[in-house]
Amino acid sequence: MYDLDDFLTRELGAFILKGKSNPVRVYELMCLKEEAGEHQKRRCSVFSEALDAYKSQSLKDGIELFSGLTKM
């Protein structure tokens, strides 16, 4: 059995889910860490940077980073 620490994940954001009154952080399971290639790890890292830029309202930086993901 796997522990979540065994997976490469990326945060998608915080959302208010049905039945909840506080935002819940949602993560996407990408793959097992041991199976992740450098390219996939880099994409997750850039996605995280883009999401952080969006959260801090650095929209221009966020857009550039998200757009760059389409070229990776």
Structure description:
- By secondary structure, this protein is of the alpha+beta class.
- The chain is built from 2 helices and 2 strands, in the order ββαα.
- It has a two-stranded antiparallel ribbon.
- α1 packs antiparallel against α2.
Mean pLDDT over the residues: 93
Estimate the global geometry from the Cα principal axes: flat
> What's the story with the biggest beta sheet?
2 strands, antiparallel
- Written as H for each helix and E for each strand, in order along the chain, the element string is EEHH
Strand content: 25-35%
Q: What share of the residues lie within helices?
A: 40-55%
Number of helices, counting only DSSP H or I runs of 4 residues or more: 2
Rg for CA atoms: 14 Å
Helix/sheet category: alpha+beta
Strand order, largest beta sheet: 1-2
Q: Can you count the beta strands?
A: 2
Uncertain stretches: none
Q: What is the CA–CA distance across the termini? A: 32 Å
List keywords for this structure.
about 70 residues, two-stranded antiparallel ribbon, alpha+beta, 2 helices
